[in-house]
Amino acid sequence: MSDSESTATTTRAGALARGSIGTPLNNTLAIARREFVSYFSSPLGYIVIGMFLLLVGFLFFIPFAFLTLGKATLQPMFNSISWLLPLICPAIAMRTFAEESRTGTLEMLITQPVRDWEVILGKFFGALGLLAVCIVATFSYPVIISRMGELDWGPVAGGYLGLLLGGAAYISFGVMVSSFTKDQITAFFVSFIVGAVFFLMNKALIFFGGAASVIEYLCPDYHFASIARGVIDARNIIYFGSVIFICLLATARSLESRRWS
Amino acid sequence: MATSDVMIETRELSKVYGAQRAVDRISFEIRRGEVVGFLGPNGAGKSTTMKILTCFISPSEGTAKVGGFDVFDDPLSVRSVLGYLPQRASLYPEMGVVEYLEFAADLRAIPKDQRRAKIKEVVEICGLKDVLAKTINELSYGYRQRVGLAQALIHDPPILILDEPTADLDPNESAEVISYIKEIGKTRTIMLSTHDLVEVKEACARVLIVNRGKIVADGAPDDLAAKSGNVKYVLAIDGGKDDTVRKAGPVIEAVKRVVADAAVKELPSDDRATHLEVNVKGSGDHRREFFRMAVENKWDLLELRREAVQLEEVFRQLTVGEGAPRRNAGAKAAVTSTAATKESSSDV
Hints:
The structure holds two protein chains of two kinds.
Chain A: H1 3-6, H2 24-39, H3 43-61, H4 65-68, H5 75-81, H6 85-93, H7 95-103, H8 105-110, H9 116-136, H10 140-148, H11 153-180, H12 184-203, H13 212-218, H14 220-228, H15 234-260
Helix pairs in contact in A: 2-9, 3-5, 3-9, 6-9, 6-11, 6-12, 7-11, 7-12, 9-11, 9-15, 11-12, 11-14, 11-15, 14-15
Chain B: E1 6-17, E2 20-31, E3 35-39, H1 46-53, E4 61-66, E5 69-70, H2 75-81, E6 82-85, H3 97-107, H4 112-125, H5 141-153, E7 159-163, H6 171-184, E8 189-193, H7 197-203, E9 206-211, E10 214-219, H8 221-228, E11 231-238, H9 249-258, E12 263-267, E13 274-280, H10 287-296, E14 300-308, H11 311-321, H12 331-344
Parallel strand pairs in B: 3-8, 3-9, 6-7, 7-8
Antiparallel strand pairs in B: 1-2, 1-4, 4-5, 9-10, 11-13, 11-14, 12-13
């Protein structure tokens, strides 16, 4: 390396010329790409995809729910899959920050010229990418159903959108919990338990009396079911968007608090 | 910033964890092109200071600038001008060496058409040619450190902060890493934290010793050693035809006339010359006087060597000697004793 290259020029203010800093999009994509690829460098990615497809296949073929309705529909499958999200998403998100904190790679990452929110979004989208692979792998099911009868593709598209949005909400929660701890197993169980509690609350609204409507609105499963019916309601989109935003914001605060601890 | 030559600057920098002051109002400057050793015992505040300078953690008080950019106000610019190798460089184990360097180049926004050349360059500097096809988890610790160093160099930074780059390396690996640091230090400002004082003497022109969060010494390794205690001279004098010099007496007397309070010891020798070890208190340099002494007496001066007290001894005095008995005392006592240490070493 030549002297002229390595000895940066100084500005009038006495500071060095700023080094290269990537655009937010490039940095986010670079981190997301690394995160996504890393799932397939360990058994985790394969286990998650395998488990998801196994359970979805089980839910799809064993009850043959779509046949009992007398019409070609995937709605029973989507409804059944919804309970998988609180299990699968924490497994995907558990390592995002916890593992990096434990191994020390987070220090290497954060001391690069990247903004905290680029790191958070990169990890979030990397994890979402794995869920997207799981979801895309189920595309053969609507194709099979459509050969058995007239399939209304609106609810199918809605169901997949709901899966993606619901999954994104659970993943954002998992990412947030992962940023609070250095133990990915702890991150998994906390995310799973909280997700499962919200899921079950939606199934037991009768016990909440007057608060039932509020509880119902807070449960992701309610909004997912609504979208899976093929009704794209702005309230559902806003709900999922808000959950994702709040969780990622809390993740940012968590990262920030490390600096001051 | 005093001048544009100051690459790293701290002013009254502190970091407080609960009741403990990990870094206690330290101020120092590192100028362009300096390779500075940052020494101190475990828990002295070295890594904390480095983490502040790299914007990984925030200071509780005080200011710090790197490359003229404030670590608090402009962390992105700070990170853009420095390369950082944290203690026990943690790399993504599942990534290949080249894949990891490409990722680092990506985050450093190195244009795609320059990436291959940059990676090739750091691979050569850090000696990674033999392991390019391997994943990081297949590498020895020494090679992982080299990969960490390579990622720190990939954007050709003017400033490098290296936190114990040779920790846990075997002697051969350490020597190699230090030789890389010396090589890259020819064109960069480097702040190097290590426990190995031999490495410091080899690689660093200046040393900052930190103890209990405070800077207790700052200077060139030899100067620190010399200023802190006795200086030793080794003389070999041959009297030629003057047979009296074969007996050490006249030489010792002459030496005593030069430095009255010198402690002189005759060293064993297998030649006809007189070999002396002269211990002198203080930091002065008496070599010229010893030379004149030999000339005036018409003696042949075969050897004249000045050796400062070893840096290891200085380090021990500054960081252990006084503080050790109070190591388990409370935080308040620790701060007090550190202050005392600094006062006692203010002439260092």
